[in-house]
Amino acid sequence: MSTVRALVHHGPGQSSWDTVPDPVIEEATDAIVRVDATTVCGGDLRILRGDLPEAKPGTVLGHEGVEAGPGVHHLRSGNQVIVSAVSACGHCRECRDTTFGRCGAGGG
């Protein structure tokens, strides 16, 4: 099993750079991306402060690029992409209305 280094949340005010397993495709619509540059976002800061109790210890922080599954049809290996903090299906009413944070398929 291959591993990578990641910033891992261990509880309010507790984080460390840990070795974790490489991500794997879990759903047909998953894509794994190679990260060339990254930064901590406001959501990560809220987790680190303990403001989001739903972020359980062991959570890998950052906009994780979580290779393309068989359900990914619009991306190819080598494409450059931006990994957004907001997930969206792109097909529901909210996505068609460009209110991606309200995506009915798990956005936010």
Please tell me about this protein's structure.
- The chain has 108 residues and is an alpha+beta fold.
- The chain is built from two helices and two strands.
- A hairpin with a 2-residue loop joins strand 1 and strand 2.
- The protein is globular and about 40 Å long.
Number of strands: 2
Helix vs. strand class? alpha+beta
Tell me, what's the shape?
Answer: globular
The strands making up the biggest β-sheet line up spatially as: 1-2
Proportion of β residues?
A: 15-25%
How much helicity do the residues have?
10-25%
Q: Provide the succession of SSEs.
A: EEHH
Mean pLDDT: 81
Biggest β-sheet, characterized?
A: 2 strands, antiparallel
Give the end-to-end Cα distance, rounded to a whole number of Å.
31 Å
Features:
2 helices, single chain, 108 residues, alpha+beta, two-stranded antiparallel sheet
Topology:
Layout: E1 3-11, E2 14-21, H1 42-49, H2 93-96
Antiparallel strand pairs: 1-2
Summarize the structure.
This protein is of the alpha+beta class and 108 residues long.
